[in-house]
Amino acid sequence: MTKRLPHMQRRADSGVWQFRIRVPADLLTVYGKADIRQSLGTANTSEAREACARLLAKVEADFAAHRRTLNPTVLHNLTPDLEGMLVERIKWRILSTDDATRFNPAKLHGFLMTMEAIAPPIRVFAPDAFPEYLMHPEVGMTPSKLERLRQIEALLAGGLSKELMFGRLDLAQSYADDETKALGFHVDWSVPTHRAALVRILRTIVATWLEAAKRSFGEPVETPPEPAAPTVVPSDTAPRKNGAMTLFDVADEWAKVGPKKQDAINKVQRALGLLKASGQSVKLHDITRHSGLAFKRYLQEPSRGFSGQTAGKHWHCVVSILRFAAHELALIDANPWNGTTAPTGTKAKREAWSVEQLGKLFASDLFTAYVLPEHKNAGADAAYWFQVIAIYSGARLHEIAGLAPGDFSVRNGVPVFEIRKSKTVAGERTVPVHAELVRLGLLDYVVARRADKASLWDLNEQPSRDGSTFFSDWHRSFRKEQGFGQPLLDFHSFRHTAISAIRGVTPAWPETAIDQCVGHESTGSEGAKRYTQHPVEKLKLVIDSITYPGLTLSRVYSAE
Q1: Which neighbouring-strand residues pair with 8?
Q2: 417: alpha, beta or left? (left if phi > 0; alpha if psi -120 to 50)
Q3: Helical axes 195-214 vs 170-183, angle rounded to 10°
Q4: What is the pLDDT of residues 286-310, one digit of tens each?
Q5: In a 10 Å sphere around its CB, with 0-12 CB exposed, 13-18 middle and 19+ buried, how is residue 281 labelled?
Q6: CA-to-CA separations, 292 to 23, 340, 558, in angstroms, rounded
Q7: Could you tell me if 159 and 410 are in contact, meaning their C-beta atoms sit under 8 angstroms apart?
Q8: What tens digit of pLDDT does each residue of 182-241 get?
């Protein structure tokens, strides 16, 4: 009898071989299903074995790519070769994007349409009163389009030059992070020696945009070929200790890699403390699947008083440290708890705000007269802007709280903000600024804060709790004052509301575009997702489709 490979099953009704593989536990949230199944298209065993081997190699490569995205390599030492590669990729990215816009009538039209909303002179016009040069989207470059493009390029070049003159490196870091994220690693820019690399990147950005602008005057500026992606090797790892190294030691190393909030560190320490209290060894090389089962039982004991959801959170904190020890530090060959199931429990589903409820909430003098609350947990201006940003972007509370003045910029003529800190890798994204937020004065507020202060918000911060946690406490009391005491109708419900508004558009937007806007991990292969990244011009249309018929907010903010 011919020996078959694992992951093969024969259908009883047709005799055709099927491929099946279980999705690893650490990737379940990515795939959204417990296993992957696919027909091998043949009843011949030899042919099926060959097809299964090919498909297995592809699926395992996808698993590895997802893990690189979820756990990107963090580089603390940016080598000259890697710095040069980033510079060349950014130059190629700017010029290739300009090619794609300049020689594609639809993209050129979208770019100019977007710029009409933000580039001086600001024009507000009805659909039947477009500038004449925008009346024919199917037509490519015309003299009037070229003239406007030259004006826009001059404005962009001036803005970029100011970033260079004033030594602002946020833009350079944003460009660099876009490239490194796409390549599956992250550079620790807090290292002092990396500042010189950001300066070089910023100079390249300015110089390349100026080169691109020469194309509008007939100069044949060539786009270089795409630089090859590097093979990234971690620059340093945690010190290797003897067999007495504990999970607490690993957690200390985890806390040093990238910015970690104190709240996250406290949660990990709490979970490791529970593991120790359960009677299990916390020595790294003593951790086994049996100890994982014992810890799970300990968390689920009625005397603990944990819900299934809370027990699961403690469990995943320990799993994340084991994963870090295996994949990042290579201190153990594999995560011994990989593939095991976590404690589970039901979670009440949050409600979305109705337009009527939003109207009632936004009827307070905070939104009708910009009367800011005096309580320090409200964060002054944050009390107003957090809520309007949430309903017109779907961003999470901690994502909005993490915004800085330097996170706002213009990409391909579209005003955007960069979310650099999120609960997932997919959450780190570029979000176009909704037209309503522009009208309400958000960009004016950012400019005013950039001139006066380094931070965007005046949040109450303490070592043990971040500002978003304090704000959440204030918002709970604010909702009650406005007549909303429902526990399932909270700040996070704004996110559900915005996403529902996007999904209610007809015809529907592509799921990948929605995911890219709101920070959801798209399903499918890594290659498919990489090649379905949507330009900011399209994302702007998706974000601007968030509307609430019947809800009208007056502009009450003034920078003066």
Answers
A1: 19
A2: beta
A3: 90
A4: 898 888 888 998 888 887 777 788 8
A5: middle
A6: 19, 8, 56
A7: yes
A8: 777 788 888 888 889 999 999 999 999 999 999 999 999 999 998 887 655 444 444 444
